[in-house]
Every structure is written in structure tokens, then in C-alpha cells.
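RESIDUES AND SHAPES:
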Amino acid sequence: MRALLSRFTADRRGLGAVEFALVLPFMLTACFGSVQCYLLARAKMLTVAAARNLADLVSQQDSVSASVMADFCTAGKLSIQPLPSTTLKISVASVNYSSTTSAPAIAWTDTTCGSVAAITTAATLAKSVVTASGDSAIVVCATYTLSLPISFPVGSSFALTGTALARPRNGVAVTYST
């Protein structure tokens, strides 16, 4: 029995296959995890870019309407390419300084591109830039749900958000016409 055991421990054939079998799960986890982290970071950057692009487009206007916002929505959805834009939702608000309350107040909101709950806090988000009478800001809140085909190792569905602030380029508040 002792001779059989010593012969078994001295035989090194197949050692590489055993080591590979032990290391492979960790290697696959690291590879899949790094790819998923890359996709997640990329989707977050594209969501923020879509919000910034929409804020920039709206801030260049004197007045916007629902049809203009629909065109801007298309531009926002193109900003997130090559990811699918079906789960992208963007809400826009104009925040003006209210002389009656001496605080920022929402002048108008638009949800043509989808309703985002965070837009209700637009006045709070713009508080740092809308500080005096005549001040105005465009606040854009975007959400994107990223669905990954493989849920291992970090998960398969992520809700990403992006917020952007822009001051009107013409120096006056952007109005909303119906």
C-alpha cells in the first residue's frame, strides 16, 4: 500500500490539467466581471452624456415646445448609441429664481422623453446656480436601465442616472410654449 501511495504522489502526469481546472473558475469570473464593469461604466458615461447634450440643446433656445422637445429627445437617444435606447428616459425642467419666495422654483417641466422622478427636485438641484433675481437654469435628469445578457458575477440589470445643469445661452429664461 505504501509503495502504491508513493508511486501515486511521485507521478506528475495530469498535474497541469488539475491546476487548470482549479484556476479556471476564478479566471472566468475575473474576465466576465471586468467586461461587465466596462459595460456598466460605459453605459453610465453615455447616460450622463445624453443628459448633458439635451441640457445644452435646450439652453441654446429662447423657447421650446413639445415638438421641439421630441426632436431633442431623438438627439438624446442618439447620444446613447450603440446601446439600445428603449429604456432611456429624460425629463427636462426650467428653474427660475422666484422673487416672491426668494428661492429657485420650477417654471416648467417636459416629460416628452419619458418621466423621471428626480425632476421633481430640479429646484434643489439648481440651487447653487440660481441664486438671484433673473437667474435661470435648465435641469435635465436621465435614467437608463442597462440589461446585461449574463448575470454572473455582478448582476444583469442596473438602473443608471445622469443629471445635467445648463444656463440659458441667450441670458434669458427658456420659455415653454404648448
Observations:
- Strands lie at 63-65, 89-98, 103-113, 136-147, 157-166, 175-177.
